[in-house]
Structure to design on (464 residues):
């Protein structure tokens, strides 16, 4: 027997490609632009969002029958903010170094619209297990794009990957730089992320025309 | 029995209960962890101060590496010989000067009141280091750090950190390739206390020119860089009167 039924598997695989939160639903763009100048930051953000989204989806799903619909957005916001603050405090006490790395991401996680979007669109109408899978799937779809964008921006903008020089030293002029290659400073600034995301959307839709909206 | 979640009374009751539950949960977490968190922050400050005077575990061209937390208290008392608080023209010995909230004192100075400025005197291999805390503003939030000087007003080391600068851009002020550039720069220009500017396009990416009061900026982090320049300048202005008394060149 398979671990997950086909329907459940789809909850994880759909957001990776044909229902990707960034390239198809165009959610979570703000953080995708802001923090993808380095691969490491992209990865940290992806893992943090995965944790918060999966946990949050489960909590909201468990509360789905008692949340008053009039104030459900506020309730969702409080759940995500509380989760993030508790995680932040626990890390500060027991993994101080890690918490310092994450500190700048805390605000970005709370305001990530993918999180509110999944609470509203999925967790309010589904059970905890399926909501958990949905959270994992969507954050993986989000993280995948972040890592792709981070890879190209760091490689072309700084000539490094995870902070390790891969193209030579731009100041000492070794490696690729010895034959006149230069880092593209534009890749470091946020608009470059928009272009990389745009290219991903283009490639994805030209491979699968069903994704193109009709006017 | 199904609950009618659309009733106003239910909505208000739900909100009230949630606020109480969430509030007490957060209060409980915060108060039960505060001891450990405070200790971590104290160790971090000691690590940062030691880092600025060159007591760290940096190897080669790698990452920032502090003195490990389990020995930091011992190392701190070994290398930091004296701690002072400067109040106006007074120099008061204070063994907990490193716990002074620099943010508050800088704000006091801006309002025209007399601030209580911490100062640390470290000694390593027979050489004296004057370590000064800094506090300023980056692009999104606070930036801070420590700068250590010798009696010639030449920078022996710096440490910068930030609360919320953009990851990959301004956040890199706490990376070695940025901080190491400050070492050897003088904060003096002739006889005036000039500070050190984070300059774009100073045509000196290797930072060979140590007399120009400039280090090379980080690409894509103009505002954070300007914040660092302003922070150093403000700090130098605050400590100027004291620095004049120890300056030997």
């Amino acid at each position: 027997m398979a671990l997950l039924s086909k329907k459940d598997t789809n909850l994880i695989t759909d957001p990776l490609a044909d229902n990707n939160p960034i390239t198809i639903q165009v959610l979570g763009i703000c953080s995708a632009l802001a923090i993808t100048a380095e691969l490491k930051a992209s990865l940290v953000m992806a893992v943090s969002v995965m944790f918060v989204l999966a946990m949050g989806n489960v909590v909201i799903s468990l509360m789905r029958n008692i949340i008053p619909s009039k104030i459900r957005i506020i309730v969702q916001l409080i759940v995500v903010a509380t989760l993030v603050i508790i995680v932040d405090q626990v890390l500060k006490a027991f993994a101080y170094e890690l918490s310092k790395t994450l500190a700048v991401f805390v605000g970005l996680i709370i305001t990530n619209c993918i999180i509110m979007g999944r609470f509203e669109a999925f967790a309010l109408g589904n059970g905890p297990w399926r909501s958990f899978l949905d959270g994992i799937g969507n954050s993986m779809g989000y993280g995948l794009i972040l890592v792709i964008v981070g890879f190209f921006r760091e490689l072309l903008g700084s000539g490094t990957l995870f902070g390790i020089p891969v193209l030579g030293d731009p100041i000492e002029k070794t490696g690729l730089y010895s034959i006149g290659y230069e880092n593209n400073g534009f890749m470091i600034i946020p608009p470059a992320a928009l272009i990389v995301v745009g290219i991903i959307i283009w490639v994805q839709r030209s491979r699968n025309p069903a994704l193109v909206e009709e006017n | 029995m199904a609950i009618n979640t659309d009733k106003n009374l239910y909505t208000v009751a739900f909100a009230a209960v949630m606020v109480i539950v969430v509030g007490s949960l957060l209060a409980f977490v915060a108060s039960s962890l505060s001891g450990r968190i405070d200790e971590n922050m104290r160790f971090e400050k000691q690590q940062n101060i030691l880092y600025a005077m060159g007591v760290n575990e940096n190897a080669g061209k790698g990452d920032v590496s502090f003195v490990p937390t389990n020995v930091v208290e011992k190392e701190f008392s070994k290398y930091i010989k004296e701690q002072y608080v400067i109040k106006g023209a007074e120099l008061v010995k204070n063994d907990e000067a490193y716990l002074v909230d620099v943010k508050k004192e800088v704000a006091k100075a801006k309002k025209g009141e007399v601030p209580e400025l911490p100062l640390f005197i470290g000694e390593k291999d027979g050489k004296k280091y004057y370590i000064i805390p800094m506090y300023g503003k980056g692009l999104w939030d606070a930036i801070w750090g420590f700068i250590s000087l010798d009696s010639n007003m030449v920078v022996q080391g710096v440490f910068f950190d930030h609360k919320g600068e953009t990851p990959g851009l301004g956040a890199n002020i706490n990376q070695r390739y940025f901080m190491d550039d400050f070492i050897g720069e003088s904060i003096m220009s002739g006889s005036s206390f000039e500070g050190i500017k984070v300059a774009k396009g100073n045509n000196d990416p290797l930072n060979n020119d140590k007399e120009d009061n400039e280090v090379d900026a980080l690409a894509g982090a103009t505002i954070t860089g300007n914040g660092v320049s302003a922070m150093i300048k403000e700090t130098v202005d605050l400590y100027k009167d004291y620095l004049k008394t120890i300056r030997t060149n």
The mean pLDDT of chain A is 86. The longest strand of chain A covers residues 160-161. Chain A is about 60% helix and 0% strand.
